[in-house]
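Sanity check

After download, print the first record. It should look like this:
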Amino acid sequence: MAQQSYGARLEALAIAAPDAPAIICDDGALTRGDFDKSANRLARAYAARGLGFGDRATITLPNCVDFFVACLAVWRLGAVPNPVSNRLAAPERRAIVARAQPKLIIGADSDDSGVSCIPVGFEPSDDLSDAPLPDQIPPNERAMASGGSTGLPKLIVASNPAVYDENFASAIFKAKRAVLVPGPLYHAAPWSSAWQALFAGCMVVSMERFDARRTLELVEKHSVDRLGLVPTMMHRIWRLPAEERQAFDVSSLEFVMTGGAPCPAWLMRNWIDWLGADVMHEAFGPSERIGGTFITGREWLEHPGSVGTPVGGAKIKILDDDGHEAPAGTMGEIYMMPAGGPGSTYQYVGAQAQTTDDGWESVGDMGYLDADGYLYLGDRRSDMILSAGRNIYPAEIEAVLDAFVGVASSAIIGLPDDDLGQAIHAIIECANDLEPAALRDHVASNLVHYKIPSTFEFVRERLRDDAGKLRRAALRKARTETDNP
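Expected structure tokens:
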């Protein structure tokens, strides 16, 4: 049968090979059979707490065995998982719960919203059956949480039901043997990478937190053939001592994909030189699934810095500030149209889509198309800095900073300036002291003068989260509030 509910698909795989490894995490492992039975027992425990068809369940667990079992249990009841970070501050989680209106919060001891909570480490009663449940197809695959432009969270509720069709499995996420997932599962790409591999009958190796050396260790240990990395992870692996990085056998890798943020061209080129153009790939697309692009390593060498051309029948165009289509090579806002037409891939809860009159949609990303239709990324419109009348794109400066030896990561923000409007401020994450003059000279040799940061700040704490994301607005707010008590 080509098309099955997610629950039925994993049940069929468990029946076919119950002892085959399914999931390996830092906290343990599960065979297909144990995964299937554990989810059935847990689903019955969730049902006793009131979770049913079409309900949402907020899952606030780290990358672990229990996360996978909880999601499958939710699907088995025809309900919709709403995965969120287990590191959210209480006010942040409350805001998401207010949007999601879940029947259960999984991974929390309590919540002042009054929603029933399932604590970390919960074990269902032994008298609950692990036998199959009636097959149900949840109306939505997932309800991802995302920060909104107003500072309040929004939900991105996938329009597709939780159904797997082996005839239309994603080529991008389809592993052959094993996929390694180093990113947080509450983000779209790690989520898809893990679940599509499981549905294809492959093994998933998941890390609770990314570690550069450990990533290479796991690739070698489990003969991983598919790996998804955000550029920050690629940077940290590349910054390992060469002899340490090359000591691991990563020849099993057939497909490495980066995405989630613009990848600096110097970094992509180094990885192509290391692993080969046939292994490296890059993709771009928002969690809303309104469109996306894809590029192979060989194509990238012909179009350095590009994230590729549209895939999946979606269309892309670039609009200028007046709403007119921009010519090739001109930076503007990226608008997309999914193959199924406007509104066919998701619904927002707590936000309104930004659309043109004829239904083309943007999530605020900037970029341009070359004459061959290849897309090149800028930044989010909200991240752009306007300094002395010039548009400054932080990612361009960050790519140059990150190439300087000793820089672990960087963040460029605009701070209020009476003369310029906004002054460029660089925040540099580094383990050891760096010489500001040498860093400034490095930037000056790679960028035009008006893109050189006015000020440099050096920090020891991590700037980016496990998904490679910056909270640029929070960084900006912390520094403006300090300057204006």
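If your output differs, re-run the checksum step. Summary of this record's structure: Residues 384-483 form a domain with the GMP Synthetase; Chain A, domain 3 fold (CATH 3.30.300.30).
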